[in-house]
Amino acid sequence: MQPHHVVTRGNESVVRKGALKTIQIMTERRQGNKKVTKLSGMESFLIDAEALASELQKKFACSTTVGELPGKKGQEVL
C-alpha cells in the first residue's frame, strides 16, 4: 500500500499520494544587514499564498510579495 494523506480546509478536502511535504521557512541576508524571510510549500496545506502574504503584511507591518518558485511548481512568499 502506498502512503497518502488527506488535507482538509473548511469544506475543501484533498487526497494526495506520498508523504506530506513540510512548509519551508528560510532567512536570507541581502545588502548589508537586511534580512528576508522566505516561505514555501504552503500549497500542500491548501494555503493561498496571496491571502497569507496579505495577512502577514497586516500582522507584522512589513512589505510582502508572492513569487513563483524557480523551476518548481508552486509559489513563495517573501
UniProtKB/TrEMBL annotation:
One of its GO terms (molecular function) is translation initiation factor activity. The keyword Protein biosynthesis applies. One of its GO terms (biological process) is formation of translation preinitiation complex. Residues 23-77 form the SUI1 domain. InterPro entries: EIF2D, eIF2D_SUI1, SUI1, SUI1_dom_sf. It comes from the Eukaryota. Keywords: Initiation factor, Protein biosynthesis. Pfam families: SUI1. This is Eukaryotic translation initiation factor 2D-like.
